[in-house]
Amino acid sequence: MEELVFSKVDEYLKANQDLCQCERCRLDICAIVLNSFPPKYIVSDKGEAYSRLAALNSQFKVDLVTAIIQAANEVKKNPRHS
Ligand SMILES: [Zn+2]
């Protein structure tokens, strides 16, 4: 799950060069996405298997992209550095 978020955030940053590309902002975006995501995607009895299954679900992908866009906007407005 976290790997998936990281790779998607990287893709999003590459596609949006107006966003700060630094490690600090990248990690902040990932953290916000992971925190904002419905826990059902992250924690389940079946753990890893469920996460992989969810990752294949198209609604999950849409939710993930939406969460990344929101997180990126937040970090853009309030970067934790000058
Ligand atoms: Zn930055």
Structure description:
The protein is mostly helical and 82 residues long. The protein has five helices and no strands. The chain is elongated. The N and C termini lie far apart (30 Å). The structure holds zinc ion. The site of zinc ion (ZN) has 6 residues, from helix 2.
Compact description:
The protein has 5 helices and no strands. The chain is mainly α and 82 residues long. Helix 1 packs across helix 2 (23-36) and helix 1 packs across helix 5.
Reading the helices and strands in chain order gives HHHHH
Helix/sheet category: mainly alpha
Count of DSSP E strands?
Answer: 0
Gyration radius, in Å: 13 Å
Defining key terms:
single chain; 82 residues; mainly alpha; binds zinc ion
List the SSEs and their pairings.
Layout: H1 2-15, H2 23-36, H3 39-42, H4 48-56, H5 58-77
The structure holds zinc ion (ZN).
Residues 20, 22, 24-25, 79, 81 line the site of zinc ion.
